[in-house]
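For the sake of transparency, this paper describes our internal protein records without simplification. Because each token names a local backbone shape, the row as a whole describes the fold. One such record is reproduced below, unchanged from the form in which we store it.
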Amino acid sequence: MLMASVLLASAGLLRLPFERDMELEFKEQGFRDWSPGLSTRDQLTQAAFVGALGGFRSLVASVYHLKAHNSFVKKEWGDVERYRAVTASLQPKFWSYWDMAVWDMAWNAYGHYRGEAEEYGNDFRGWHAESIIMPRYLEKGITFAKRGLEWLPEDYRLMKVIADIYDQKMGNPEKAAEWYLKASQKPQAPSHVYRAYAHQLTLCAGREEQAYRVTEDLYRNSGNVTLTLLRDMERLEEDMARRAAHDRSYDQLKDAAFAEASGYLEMAAFAMHLLEIRKDVPAAISVYTKVADNRRAPSFYRRKLAFLMAEDPQKAAEAYTILKDLAVSYPGALRREDMARLAELESRLGIPE
């Protein structure tokens, strides 16, 4: 008995370093930070639950992932939600399981009931699908993403998918901007996430100044002027110029435009006043010419100048030259409807097809 006790104690001491290292590795890999909640436990069969506790979480999760897909094919959305919850709970550090749960709720189920709402129109079933069921599935998608973030707090993708729901499904730019900004601050977030934040900010009423600071910084310093960024910049500067043109007097605007330290924005506000308040198109063209010549002024000022000039038969040929140069060098400066106007100008000037 004494010898047996000594042998057992020795074996135990020898195993301690090995088991300590294994336990540390388990913790690093996330195998010691999970326990199924009551809701998950209720949804698992007894055998699956025992298997999950016995170290077969990945296998059981795969089985329930397949069950979720099978229910998706049958459009059984309650089962899809339940199986996705089980799958994600078993493997909570696999972001894709959370992402698929969000997608099934906020896109697939939502889309299914949107089709039902369109089919039944204004009757009760259509109203119920549109007003009750569809918003509920959007909230379910957001809930799945937030639960995933409890396990993956640094994963920008789950934050971005919440922002996408607020943007694409709910039309809530305030919330979308908030979540795009959170996502953009995570280490692995690509630059387009911050651009999405900037765009949503331009849609938030009362935050125009903040939106312009962010948008201008991207325009000046990002090195990649996208079409959306250019359009946002144009809309914000147009609104700023129009407000100044309508709120300030002719003399105030003129003094600001021609002050020694003035920039192209002050000049643009004065030109807007001449065009919209005084209805003096030749004078507006003269000032817009100075704006377009400013090296810091975006290309859309040349577009505006050219279309103003195109209304004057004596300046139409010069306007066409400007527009043609923009179409070749900066195609993003021209809108789709501008191309029709450009074609009409070519016809008027007798430019060969």
Remarks:
- The chain is about 75% helix and 0% strand.
- The CA atoms of residues 181 and 302 lie 33 Å apart.
- The domain at 154-245 is CATH 1.25.40 (Serine Threonine Protein Phosphatase 5, Tetratricopeptide repeat).
